[in-house]
Amino acid sequence: MDIKQYLNTWASDYKHELQENIMPFWLEHGLDRQHGGVYTCLDREGRLMDTTKSVWFQGRFGFIAAYAYNQVEKNPDWLAASKSCVDFIEQHCIDADGHMFFEVTGDGQPLRKRRYVFSECFAAIAMSEYSIASGDTTYALKALDMFKNIQKFLSTPGFLEPKYLPTLQSRGHSITMILINTASRIRAAIADPILDKQIDESLSAIRHYFMHPEFKAVLEMVGPNGEFMDTCNGRLINPGHCIETSWFIMEEAKYRNWDKNLVQMALEILEWSWEWGWDKEYGGIINFRDCRNFPVQDYSQDMKFWWPQTEAIIATLYAYQATHDEKYLVMHKQISDWTYAHFPDKEFGEWYGYLHRDGTVAQPAKGNLFKGPFHIPRMMVCGYRLCIGN
């Protein structure tokens, strides 16, 4: 493999696809120029199917548009899109108690709240990235305040409805890993000890609670002290989540001048999760596995969703940058070849989100309340920067 040519080719492809396909698709079809923010419930051709707005995606696209502006091209339309989403969040998506909504109407009337703080996480990274892009430091301060709210909500008994009754005490991987990325993205805009402390606490929790060497797996749910729970939920492995965690850790290792212990931890998670997730018969990363190889109860367990593939693309590039071991570029080529053969819609643009196990399209919509302009453009921005060596 001519490594330099390989990386240069992918850098060019990521940048081109971001500029000419993904961002134009969402700016044309998703951006709400009347009320602000972004719609995500789009059919294959980009037609609006539902005006319900995902609050997650107001933050996610607010972040992506500013992130692309900061890392790829100073496109004023991207900066304006980020501001539109951030403004919509501030005007319509935060309840009187500070806890954000999950869904709102097109014009911003609240529809639903959930027990999570993911809306807050995505809003915070949108504000911090917009602060960097615009130079307006007030948004960095807003992001930091949002992060403090996240911590308050998580630590205040009874504020967030628990997932289970007190009979079952547990820890979840999702919030643990997302707080690494949330804190690190805010830290890029504003320094505060609470951000570094949160990252350290999440890293420690992943290492000591969620990594289970006896299964060579990161588990999605464990007991309060990392105890293995021999139930369907306790045995669950989400390879895409785990691979995403691995590159979050590598990003932090890079920030710490390639901290060797963090690199080793991240590579171990990547390789464990690749072994569980890669479909040796059809290719691609599947959704769920059981660490004891029992049948997984989730009906989508062997489907191929868009986002685990994008996380694997980023993680393998990070692993190569951390180690210069060519085997990670071989893995990058493996996942990229499969992903680009199945997900992009060459006729109408953007990517499909949901494939059957064999790679055929399960449904052709380009977005809904969970799929929209986030994982794919984030992969392209990260991939571009990693391929050019930054």
TrEMBL record:
<protein>
    <submittedName>
        <fullName>AGE family epimerase/isomerase</fullName>
    </submittedName>
</protein>
<keyword id="KW-0413">Isomerase</keyword>
<dbReference type="InterPro" id="IPR012341">
    <property type="entry name" value="6hp_glycosidase-like_sf"/>
</dbReference>
<dbReference type="InterPro" id="IPR010819">
    <property type="entry name" value="AGE/CE"/>
</dbReference>
<comment type="similarity">
    <text>Belongs to the N-acylglucosamine 2-epimerase family.</text>
</comment>
<dbReference type="Pfam" id="PF07221">
    <property type="entry name" value="GlcNAc_2-epim"/>
</dbReference>
<dbReference type="InterPro" id="IPR008928">
    <property type="entry name" value="6-hairpin_glycosidase_sf"/>
</dbReference>
